[in-house]
Queue: 2 jobs
Job 1
Amino acid sequence: MIKFRITQIFLFFGILLIFANNYSQTIINGKITDETSQPLSGTSITATKINESVVNAYAISDYYGNYTIKIDAKSDSVQINVSHLGYTKLVKKIVNKSQTINVNLQETEEKLKEVFLRTLPITKKGDTINYLVSAFKSQKDLVIADVLKKMPGIEVLDNGTILYQGKPIVKYYIEGLDLLEGKYNLANNNLPADAVTKVQILENHQPIKILDSLVYSDKAALNIKLKKNITLTGTAKLGVGNYPFLWDTNVTPMLFTKKQQMITSYQTNNTGNDLSNELKILTIEDLLDQAEGNHEKKDWVTIQQLSSPPFATKRWLDNNVHMFTTNYLVRLKKEVDLKVNLSYINDFQKQNGITQTTFYIPNDTISIVENAKNKLFLNSLKSKFILTKNTTKNYFKNTFEANKYWDSNSGIISSNDEEINQKVSNPFTSISNRIKWIQAFGKKLITINSVIIYTNTPQDLTITPGYYEDLLNNAKPYDKTHQKIHLSNFYTNNAVSFTKGYGRFTFTPKIGMKLQNQQLDSRITIFRNLSIDELTGNYKNNLSYNNTSFYTMLNTQYKYKNWNFELETPFKFQGFDISDADLNKAQKLNRLTFEPRVYIRNDINSFLKTTFTVSSKKDFGEINQLYYGYILNNYRGLKRYETPILESEKKNISLSLNYRNPIKSVFANASYSASYESQNLMFGNLINSNGTATYSFIEKDNSSNTQNISLSASKYFSALKTTLTLMTSTSLDKRQQLLNGIPTNSTSKNYQINGKINTEITAWMSFNYKSNFSVLNTLFNQQSFDRIIMQEHLWHFSFYPSSNQYIGFDTEFYKNNGSGINQENYFLNLNYRYTLKKSKIDLELNWNNILNTKEITTVYNNTFLYTQSTYKLRPSQILASIKFNF
Amino acid sequence: MINKLALTLFLLSFSQIYSQDLIVDKASYKALYNLTYLRDSTNLQKKSEEKMLLLVGKKYSLFQSENNRFNDSVKANLVNQFNNKKIDAQTGVNMALTQNKYTLFDFKIIKSNTEHIVIDKIFSDKFYYKEQQNLNWVITDETKQINSYLCQKATTSYAGRSYIAWFSNSIPIADGPYKFAGLPGLIIEMYDTRFHYHFEMLSLEQKTDYFSFDLAKIQKTSKVEFFNALANLKKDIIGQLEQRGFSFDESNTIQIKRTIKNNRNNQIELQID
C-alpha cells in the first residue's frame, strides 16, 4: 500500500520533470532475487552509458533485496548492470525512463580471477624472506648498513656483525655470490642503499648445496639483490681536522654484473681510526676455516711494547694508515666461481709512555722505570685465490692464500739514566692451500679436508748497548747485541670423514694424518768496541722439530625431545722427533692419547636452558717452548728451554644455566667452570737487578687450577623507562712456578661487578651509564700483594634537537687504586651530525678529548710482578667530515 | 521471585544463543591491503606499514590485520590442542609467544549490509560495539587504471577525515578496507585527503576461510565508551610494548621510543560521528 503510493509519487514527479525541461532524473527500482526467489541483499546495481563502464548511479540492494537508483542522464537509453558475487552478471539496456526492474540472478561457479597488484615490503617464500629496501630506506640513509639496522629481525652490532633473530649470519652474498668471504664490512659500509632493491634473508641456509637436504642448518644467510644487472656505484668520505693536520678519507667504487663482481677501496686517515676492522672476517664459518692450522704471524723478537689502554682505540692510536683492497669475483661457468681478494695496509704508528715494573722475588724487590718512545712501521700484503664448485652433486673449494709482512719497529727506552735503542725487523711470509671436497657415494657423504701451510719467519733484533753481560760477554759492558732468527714451518693435515645417521643417532667417523716440520735457526752476535763476535755453543740454535700424528675419532650425536648429547672420542698417536745437530741434543717422544669430550644440552622449557661439558685434553710443547740455545726475545728477556717436551693434561668442566623471559623482560645467566691442569715442567725465571730476566723450564711435576663463576641479569622497569643490567664474576687461579730458583705458589683472585643503566629522560634525550668495578688480589707464597681496584664509569647523553640532527656527549672516568697510586682520568667527547635531506649528504663534526687529557695510567699485577703504565693519548682534536654516494 | 529470576535468566541465555550473537561465515575471497599510515602526525617522514585482510563471506565480511588474524589462529589452534590434552598450558603459552607476530591493530571489523560489529581490545580485555553503516558516498566520473582494474573515484567523509576511494565495478564485492563499504565494486585503493592513512590492495585471492565470533563471550560496550577508555590508556603504551618483549636497536632507541610514544596521536578515527 505504502509502496504503491511512493511509486505513484515518484512517477508523478518523474513525469513532471520530463515535462518541465530537458534536465531529467530517471528513477529505477526493483527487487533482486536468486533462483529460489529469495531476496538477494548486497547486490550492486549500476547505471552506465551503453557499453561503458563508468558508473553514473548505483544502488546496493537492501536486506529485502530492494533497490532504487536515481539517474541524471540526458541520453535516450542507459545500461543497467546487476552483479553479485557468485552470480552471473546481468546487463540490461533500457530506455531512459523511470521504471521497475526486478531481477532474478543465476548462481555461477565462475570465480573472480586472482590478482597480485604490488610487491610487499616483507614477503616470505619458503625459507627466503625478502625485505624491500625502498620500504625501509629513509632520506638520511646512505649505505645499505643504515637500512639493514631498521629491518625487523635484523641487527647490526658495533663491529659490523649482522645478526638475524639474534644470531650472526653465516654468509653475506651479493647477488648470490660470496665475494668477500666474511669480510662484509667493506660492502655493508660502502654499498649505497639506492643501488639495492631487496635484502633477502635465507633461513636455514646450508651454503654447501650437496649438504642441503642432509645436514640441517638453523643458520641464516643474507643476500643483497641489486636494482640493475650492471651496477657501478660506491661511496666517498672526506674529513679534515685541526693541528696537527688530520684527515680521514675513503673512496670505494664497486662494480656488479651477472658474471663479475668487484669492490675496491682506498682509505686513509691519521685520526686513530683502525682500518684493519674493515678487513675483519665476521662470519663464523669463514673464521673456522681459518682456524685450522693457524698460520697467523708470530713474532719471535720484539721491542719493549707498551700495554695499550683498555678503551676505545680512537682515543689513543697515533696512526698514519693507508689501506687499499680489491676483491674480484668471476663466474667461470655455471656454479664455478673464481675469487681474488687482495689487500694492502701501510701504517705508521707511534707509542709514547712510561712503564714502571716491580718484580717481587723471594727476599727481594726489583723496580725499573722505562720511558718508551716506539715507532711501528706496519706493511702487509694479503692475497687469496679461491676456486669453488658448489653443485647438488658435489662440493669443491680450493683456497690458496699468500700473505707477506714487511714490519719493522724501533724503540728508545730511557731507563735508570740509560738510553736503550731497539730495532726490530720482523717480516713474515705465509703460503697455504686448503681443499675441501664433499662427494656423495650412494647415500653416504665423504668429506675430504686437506691443508698445507708453509710459513717463513726471518726476524732480527738489535739492542744498543748490549745487555746480559754476564752471560754474553764475560760480565764486561759492550756496545750492541744482535739476535737473528730464522724459522721455517711446514704443516699439513689431511682427513677423511663420513656421516651417517641412524634414527636419533648421527655418527661421524674420521681418520687423518698431521705432519709438522719446523727448522729454527738463531744466532746472537756481540758488537764490542773493536770486534764482532758471533756467539757459539748455547747461544745458537739449529733445531729441527718434527711432529707426526695419526688420529681417528668418532663423533656421536643423539637428539631426543629437549635433549641433545654429543660425544667425541678421538684417539691420537703422536710422535715427536727433536734434534739440534750443532748442540748435539736430541729427543724423541711417542704417545697415544685419548681426549674425550661430552656435551649435553637440555632445553628445560622455552625460558630455561642448561648445558654441561666435560673434556680432557692433552697438549705437547710447541717449538717456542723447546729450544736448547738462548734466544733474546727483547732487551730484557732471554729464554731457553733445555728440557724434555712439555706434556700437560687439562681437565675441564663447565655448567651453565640460561633463563630468558621476554614477557617480564627478565634475562639471566649463570655459569661455572673449573679446570685442572697438570704438567711435567715448571716454568721458572731468574730476574737480575737491572730487570733483565732469563726464562726456562725445570723438570718438576706441578699443577694449576682455575675456577670461575659468573652471574648476570637484566630487567626492564617500565615505570622508570629504564633497563638495568648487573653482572658479577669471580675467578680463582692457583699455580706454581720458580722464581730465582725457589718454588713459589701464587694465587690470584679477581672480583668484578658491572652495571649498566639505559634510560630515556625525554623523547629527545636519552642517557646511558655503564660502570665497571674490579678488584684484583694476588697472594704470593701466602703473602698478599696490595690489592688493585679499578673503576670505570661511562656516561653517554644523546640529544635529537630535530629529525636530521644528532648531538652526542660522552663523559668517561677511569680510576686506579693500588700500591699507593691513586690515578683519576676524565674524558669528554662531543659529536654532532647534520643530514642534508635532499642531497643525501651527511655532515659530521667530532670533537674528541675536549679536556685534552694527555695520558692515562693503568696498574696491573700478575703472579710476581706489578706494572704501572702511563700511555700518551691523542690530544684534543676536531674533525669535520662530509660523506656521500656516487 | 526466584522462579521469576530463573525464568529471566533462562530466557536471556536462550535469546543469546539464538540471537545474532553467534557470527559464523565462510569466506570465499581474500583481499589483502597494505596500509601505510602516519602514527605520529608531527613526523611526516616516518610512515608505518601493516598488511590488512578483508575476508569476504556470504553474509558478513571480516576486516582485520593479517598478523592479528595469524595470532588468532595460532591461539585457537593451541587452545584446541590444550583442550584435547595434547599440550600442557605452559607449552601452549610458550608456543603462542614464540609464534606471535607484531601488530598494532587488534580490531576485527565484521561488516554486514546493515551494521558493523567492531571487536577490539584494550590490552587483554576484549570489547565489542555496534555501529550503523551510514557512509555518504559521492561518485565522480574520474577514473584511473590500477594494474588490470579500471577504477572509479568516489569520495566520502568519516570520523573527522575526508576520503578518496578508487573502486572497480568489475569486482562485484561492495566492500573495502576498514569500515568502508557500500560502493558498487571493491575498493582497490583508498586514502584520506591528508594522506595519513593509505590502503592499497595488494592481491585478491580465492580463499576458503571460516570465521566465527561468539559475541556473548565478549564484553559489550558503546563506541563512545570504548574510545574514552582507550584515550585514558594512551600514556602508558610504550612501557606496555617493551614489557611485552619488543626490543629496539640501541642506537635508534630514542627515536623509536619517540615514535611509539606518538604512535596513537594520529588514529584513523579522529572523532566519533
Note: Chain A is about 5% helix and 65% strand.
Job 2
Amino acid sequence: MTETLPATATKRRKATAAAHADPGSRSVERFAYLFVLPALALVVVFRIVPLIWGLGYSFTDYDGMSAPRFVGLDNYIGIAHDPVFLDSLINMLILLATLPIWIGLPLVLAILIHQGVPGGKLYRAVYFFPAVLSSVIVGAIFNVLLRYDGSFNLFLKALGFSAVDWLGNSSTALASLIAVQLWSTFGMSLLIFLAGLSTVPSDMLEAAKLDGAKLTQTWWYIVIPSIRPIIEFAAVVTTIGMLTSMFGLIYVLTAGGPGTSTILPEFLIWLEQGKMNRPGYASAISMVLFLMMAGLAAIQIRIMSRNADI
Amino acid sequence: MKTMNRVLRSGTILAGAITATLGAMSIAAAEDVTLTVWDWKSGDPTTTAYYDKVKADFEAAHPGTTVKFVMQPHDQYYTLLGTAIAASKGPDVVLVHGGSQAKERIAALTNLSDKVADIKARVAGWDEFAGPDGSPYAVPISIQGLAVYYNKELYKKAGLDPEKTPKTWAELKEVCEKLKATEITCFALGNKEGYGADFFYSSAAANALTPEQQAAWTAGDLKWSSPEIKAIVQAWVDTQKDGWYAEGANSTAKFMDEYQSFERSENANTIGLLSDVAHWKEFDEFLEPQNVGVYVMPPVTASVNQTLKMPLAGGIGYGVTKFSPHQDLAIALAKSFADTPAMQIFFEAAGAVPSDTAVDTSKVESPSAKVVLGSLSNGAGLLHNNTSTAETEEWHRQSQMLFTGETTVDKAVARLDEVQAQAKKK
C-alpha cells in the first residue's frame, strides 16, 4: 500500500478522461457495449420485465383466470397479517442463523485438505459428489433414511436409542431439512475455498512455520485473512442459495409441514400461486422476498467492496 | 412490349399458382385438427386400454382429427393448468377433480348445459362439476368416494369376526382396542401432505351431517367450531392418542406409503378410495379378494341416517377450455370419454367406478367391489370435495399440529373458522 486511496482515484479519473478524449478508444468502448448487449437483453427480458410484471400483479387480486382487478396494498396488508407468511419468515431467520455452519464447515475441511491430510483427493471428490445431485434425488434418498421406519432410526434403535420422527416433528423437521441441504451443497463452497487457498503464498506459510506459529495461529492470522474476499463471496452465494434453492427438498421431504415448520417464503409463493390459485398474492410475497434478498445482498456486497479497497 | 407482356403473363401465372397452393394448404390445415387433452392418468398402464379406445373411436368418427394426450405430473397438475389458463393457451380438453378443484376453475371452462342433454340421464356425478347456476362444466367419468377397507386375516388374528363390521363409533373403538391388544395397528395413516386428515373428516362427517348441514358446509355457513365438526376434529386427536395409528403419520405419504403398508398387512384398516388408486381392485391384488373387506366409517356422533351411507361424489371429469379454438370438436371429445364401451374398459381394466350407469358390473366377483357397487344408489356427500382450497390447506397444517401437540382443538377450529370466513367473502 504505497499509494493513498484518493491518489488512486484521481489517477483512475484521469485515465478515463483520456480514454474518452481518444476517438479510437470510443469505438472500442462502443464495440464493448455490443458484446454486453446480448447478456443485457436476456437480463431485461427474463429478469427485469417479469419483475415489473410481478410488481404489477402484486397490486391485483389476479386468480389466474379472471381479469386482474386493482386492489391497492390489500395483498401487502394481507401478508403482514398472514400467520403462515410470518411463520415462514421465522423459519427463514432460523435458516439464515445457520450461515456460519454453511461457511465454517467447508472452510475447515478445505483447509485440512489443502494442508495435505491423507486421502485428501478422495475426500474432495466425496464431499463434492452430492453437489451434482438434483434436490429431488437428494430428497428421495433422505426420505428413505429419515422416515420413521427408515434406516437412520433403525440404526438408532440398534444402539439402544428410541426412534425420532425426524421429518414429522416440528422440533426436528427444519433442522433435518437444513442438515440435508447442507450435506448436499457444502461441496461447492469447499471447492471455492480450495481454489482460494491455492492463491495463499506458500512462502508466508513457511515463514510462519519457521517463526514457530501454531497450526491454529497460521489459519487464523494468515490463511483466513488471505482468502477473506473468497469467504465473503461464498457467504453471498450461499445466502442466496439458502433462500431460493430449498424448494425441491421441502417439496419432497416435508411438503412444508408439519404445520408451518418447514415453510419458507419461496415454498409459500408456490403454495399460493400453484395450489391456492392466487398469483396476485403470491406476487406480493415474491416482492417482499425480493426486497429482503436485495437488502441482504447489498449489505454483503458493501462489505466485500469495502474489503476490496483495503 | 412483347417482353413486358411475357413478364406480366408469367407473373400472373406465378401469382395464381401461389394463391392456389396457399389456398390448398389452408383447406388442409382447416381439415386437420389436433385436440390436446391434459390429464394425469393417460400414462397409467391400467388406463391405457381405456384411453386407446377413446382415441380410436373418436378419430374414426371424426376424420382428420387427432387426439393427443399429454400426461402431466399429478402433484403439479393444477399449477400447470393455472399457467395454461392464465396464458389462454394449451389444452382443448382437461381432466379435473370434481368438487372444489373443478368449481374454482369454472371461469375457464365452457358451459356444457345445452350440449350434454343426450347423456345427462345415463351419466351420474354431475353435481361435482356444476357451476353456481347448476350448469355442468365437465363430463364426469368416474364416481369417487371413501370407504374403510380392512384386512380380514388380521381381524381373525385379533379374535374379531371378519364379517361383522362396526356400525357405530363405539363399535369401531372396540375393534381398534382388540387389534391393539394383539399388537396390530388399527389404521394405516399417511398425513405428510394432510390428505390423511381430509379422508378422516370426510368419512366421519358423511353420516354425521344432514343434507341441509352438508349444503350449509358447502356454502361456508356451517363452521368448523360447530358441535358436529368440532367433534370430528376432537376424534382426530383422540384416535391418535388412543394409538389407532403407527408412529410417524406426519412423515408418511398417503399416496402410496400408507396404502403400501396396508397391502403389506402391517395394519388392519385404511380409508381408501372407490376409483383411481387405493381401491378395491388394488387391495384385492395384494391381499386376495376374499381377504379384503369394506365398510362405511361410522360417525363420531349419532348417525343421521338409519343405515350408514357411503360418502360419494363425481370423481373426475373432462371439461373444455374456453380458449380452445375447436369448441364443438372438444365438447364431442369430452363427451366421448363417457361412452359406454370405453367406460366398460375403464371399469374392468382400471377398477374405476364408472359414472356411466349403463356399464355392466354384474360380472364382478370381488366381494369388496360388490359392497362398493351396491352402495352407489344412495350415497352421502363427500365433505372435503366441497371445502375451499384455503380451508383444506389450513386443515392440512392444523391436523399435523394437532398430532404434534402444537395446537389444541379449540385453537385449531378457531383458526379454521377464520379461514372459512375469508374464503366465503371471496
Note: Residues 19-30 of chain B have pLDDT under 50 and may be disordered.
